[in-house]
TrEMBL record:
Domain of life: Eukaryota
Organism: Coccomyxa subellipsoidea (strain C-169) (Green microalga)
SUPFAM superfamilies referenced in this protein's UniProt entry, alphabetically: Dehydroquinate synthase-like (SSF56796)
Molecular functions (GO terms): 3-dehydroquinate synthase activity; metal ion binding; nucleotide binding
The protein's name: Dehydroquinate synthase-like protein
Domain 3-dehydroquinate synthase C-terminal: 247-387
BP GO terms, sorted: antibiotic biosynthetic process
Pfam family, one: DHQ_synthase
C-alpha cells in the first residue's frame, strides 16, 4: 500500500469471490459458468429441492489520494468520472469533457470560502456544474438533509453511470452525501473531498455513511464505498482552531492504541501542528501515519463483522456524551466527545495498572496542548453507564472496550464495572473543576490545566 495513494480492496471476510459452494450434492449438475454467483454454479439444485441458496460477494475497490491544488483549473483530478461498465464502479483516469455535467454537494461554509474558485474551476474546464451548498452541520445531520440532496439529484436527473456526485465538506457533508449516493437509484457513485482534519483522516476514508435519528448518533446509515477520496490539505488553512483540534483527537486515538511513532510525533509537534493548521512537514507525516493506521484497521473489517475494533477507542461513551451535549445546548464536536471518552478510559487504564502515571500524564499533556476538553457537564455516571450499556448492545452483548496498555498498545476488556466508571468520572471531574479557568476553544467545556496535576 502506497502512502500517497491508498487503494482499498476487500471482500467480506470468509467469502472468497471465486470460491464455489463445496460439496458434490450442492454442485451437482452445475453449469460451469464464470461469475461470482453461487446459484449460477448450482445447475438444477433448486429445481430438484425447491430450496435455493443465493450467494454473492460485493467487491470493494476505491482509491484515496493526496492531491495538491485540487481547485487549480489545470488539475483535472476532480473531473474524473466512472469507468464504463465497471464493477465495482471504478474511478476513471479520464476527466469529464467540456459539456459534461456534475452535481456538487458542498458544506455552505466551505462554499462561502471556496465557492468562487469552485465555480471558476468547472467553468474554465467547460463542465456544467450544479453546485448545492447546504448547512451540513451536526445539528442538521438528519434524514431531512438526505431527502434534500436526493431531491436535488432528481431535479438534476443524475445519470449514475456517468456522473458521480462530488461531495465537498466535513464529515457531516460527506456522511450525508454518501448516504444519498447509496440510496439514490440504489447506488450512485460519490467522490469525497474532505475539508476538515476529522474528515480527511477518518470520516472520508471508510465506507460508513449515516445520519442521526431519534436523538441517536448515526443511527440511520449504510456501508457504501466512495468512488474516490481526494485529500487536499490546504483546505485546512481556513478551518478554525477548534475544528483542527477536533480532528487531532482522532489522530491521538490512533497514536494511543496503535502507533507509538505517531504518539511521539504529536508529543513533539502538538503546538506547531495546531498553529499551522497541519500545513507543515510534520503534519504530512502525521496525517499519512494516521490514515495508514486507520486503513490497516478498516480494510480487513469494512463491514464491522469483527466487533473488537481498535478504532472504537474513544467511541464507547462518546456517542452518548455527544448527543447529550447537543441536547444540553452546549455542543461538543465529535472529536471532543471522543477525547473526553479517551480521558476517562485513560484513567480506567491507569487505575487498572495498564499504564503508568507517567504514560497517563503524557496522554493528557497532548490533549491539553491541543486544547481538547476532558470533561463536560453532561458526564454524570448515569449517562456514562447508559453509554456503556448501549455500546455493549451494539457490540453484541460484550463490552469489547479497547483500553490503552502502554503507549501505542491496547487490550480489549469486557468487565468495566459501574464502580470503576463512577470512580474514574469523579477523578476526572475534580481534576477538570480544579482547572475551571478553561483554556479550551469552547468556553463551556473544561480543558486540562496549564500544568497537569493528574487525577488520583
Ligand atoms: N463515516 C465515518 O466513518 C465517520 C468517521 C468519523 C466521523 N464521522 C462523522 O463526521 C462528523 C464530524 O465531521 P467534522 O468534524 O468534519 O464536522 P463538520 O462536517 O460539522 O465540519 C465542521 C465545521 O467546519 C466547517 N468547515 C468544513 N471545512 C472547512 C474549511 N476547510 N474551512 C472552514 N470551515 C470548514 C463546517 O462548515 C462545519 O461548521 C460527525 O457527524 C461524525 O459522526 C463519520
Amino acid at each position: 500500500m502506497q502512502l500517497d495513494a491508498h487503494h482499498i480492496s476487500a471482500s467480506p471476510a470468509g467469502l472468497n469471490a471465486h470460491a464455489l459452494p463445496t460439496g458434490t450434492e450442492f454442485c451437482s449438475g452445475a453449469v460451469n459458468r464464470t461469475g461470482i454467483n453461487g446459484l449460477s454454479q448450482c445447475g438444477t439444485l433448486g429445481l430438484t429441492t425447491g430450496t435455493f441458496h443465493v450467494s454473492a460477494v460485493q467487491p470493494i475497490s476505491y482509491v484515496i489520494e493526496e492531491v495538491e491544488g485540487l481547485l487549480d483549473p489545470d488539475n483535472k483530478t476532480l473531473l474524473r468520472g466512472v469507468v464504463p461498465d465497471s464493477f465495482p464502479l471504478g474511478l476513471s483516469l479520464n476527466p469529464a469533457q467540456p459539456g459534461e455535467r456534475r452535481l456538487v454537494v458542498i458544506d455552505d461554509n466551505v462554499y462561502r470560502i471556496y465557492g468562487a474558485q469552485l465555480r471558476q474551476y468547472f467553468s474554465l474546464n467547460g463542465v456544467e456544474a450544479t453546485i448545492v451548498p447546504l448547512p451540513t452541520m451536526e445539528a442538521n445531520k438528519s434524514f431531512d438533509l438526505v431527502y434534500e440532496v436526493a431531491r436535488r439529484a432528481e431535479i438534476f436527473k443524475l445519470n449514475r453511470r456517468k456522473e458521480p456526485i462530488i461531495a465537498i465538506g466535513g464529515g457531516v457533508c460527506l456522511d450525508v452525501a454518501g448516504l444519498v449516493a447509496n440510496l439514490y437509484r440504489r447506488n450512485t457513485p460519490v467522490i469525497k473531498v474532505p475539508t476538515t482534519l476529522m474528515a480527511a483522516i477518518d470520516a472520508s476514508i471508510g465506507i460508513k455513511t449515516a445520519v442521526n435519528f431519534d436523538n441517536r448518533k448515526n443511527k440511520l446509515g449504510t456501508y457504501c464505498p466512495p468512488l474516490g477520496v481526494f485529500i487536499d490539505r490546504t483546505f485546512l488553512r481556513t478551518l478554525d482552531q477548534r475544528n483542527i483540534s477536533n480532528g487531532a483527537a482522532e489522530m491521538l486515538k490512533m497514536a494511543c492504541i496503535k502507533d507509538a511513532q505517531l504518539f511521539y510525533l504529536l508529543e513533539q509537534h502538538a503546538e506547531q501542528l495546531r498553529a499551522t493548521s497541519f500545513q507543515d512537514k510534520a503534519a504530512s507525516v502525521a496525517m499519512r501515519r494516521s490514515i495508514q493506521g486507520m486503513l490497516e484497521e478498516l480494510e480487513p473489517n469494512l463491514w464491522e463483522h469483527i466487533l473488537c475494533r481498535l478504532v472504537d477507542y474513544g467511541h464507547t461513551f462518546s456517542p452518548e456524551i455527544e448527543m447529550a451535549a447537543l441536547q444540553y445546548g452546549d455542543e461538543l464536536l465529535h472529536g471532543e466527545a471522543v477525547n473526553i471518552d479517551m480521558a476517562l478510559t485513560t484513567q480506567i487504564s491507569y487505575a487498572r495498572g495498564l499504564i503508568s502515571r507517567e504514560e497517563q500524564a503524557r496522554v493528557m499533556d497532548i490533549m491539553q496542548r491541543f486544547r481538547l476538553p476532558m470533561w463536560h457537564p453532561v458526564c454524570n455516571p448515569d449517562l456514562l453507564l447508559k453509554g456503556l450499556r448501549d455500546t455493549t448492545k451494539a457490540r453484541d452483548g460484550l463490552q469489547r472496550v479497547p483500553l490503552m496498555c502502554g503507549i501505542g498498545e491496547a487490550v480489549f476488556v469486557n468487565d468495566i464495572s459501574p464502580a470503576e466508571i463512577t470512580s474514574a468520572a469523579a477523578a476526572l471531574k475534580s481534576f477538570a473543576l480544579q482547572t475551571s479557568h478553561s483554556s479550551s476553544e469552547n468556553n463551556n467545556i473544561v480543558a486540562a490545566p496549564a500544568k497537569i496535576a493528574m487525577p488520583v
